[in-house]
Amino acid sequence: QVQLVESGGGLVQPGGSLRLSCAASGFTFSSYSMRWYRQAPGKEREWVAEITSSGGIRNYADSVKGRFTISRDNVKNTLYLQMNSLKPEDTAVYYCKANSLSSWGQGTQVTVSS
Hints:
The protein is mostly beta strands. The chain has strands spanning 3-7, 10-12, 18-25, 34-39, 46-51, 58-60, 68-73, 78-83, 92-98, 108-112. The chain has a 6-stranded mixed β-sheet with strand order 2-10-9-4-5-6, with no helix packed on it. A 4-stranded antiparallel β-sheet has the order 1-3-8-7, with no helix packed on it. The model has no long low-confidence stretch (mean pLDDT 97).
C-alpha cells in the first residue's frame, strides 16, 4: 500500500533552515507529481509546493516563494523540501502527498521560534 514517511522537522530559530524528506513506497513514485502541504495549529491544511513527476516544473505558494525549494530523487523515491529564511508563521506540521492519490503520511513538526 502507499506509504509516505516525512522526516527532518524540528525546532529552529527565525532565519534558520531545515530540510524535510519524504520517503515514498507502494506506488511508482517517478510517475506522480508530488506536493508538500502544511497545517498550523487551529488552521486548515494548506498547499505549500508542487513538483512534476520528472522534476521539471515546480510551483510554490506565495507565502514561501523564494525561501523554499522542492526537489525529488526518483532513484531514491524521496521528495525533499529545503526551507530557508524560516519565519514563525512557518510553524506547522508538514505533509507530503502524491497528486491524485489519497494517502497522507504522519507529518513532521516544524517549529520556528526564538
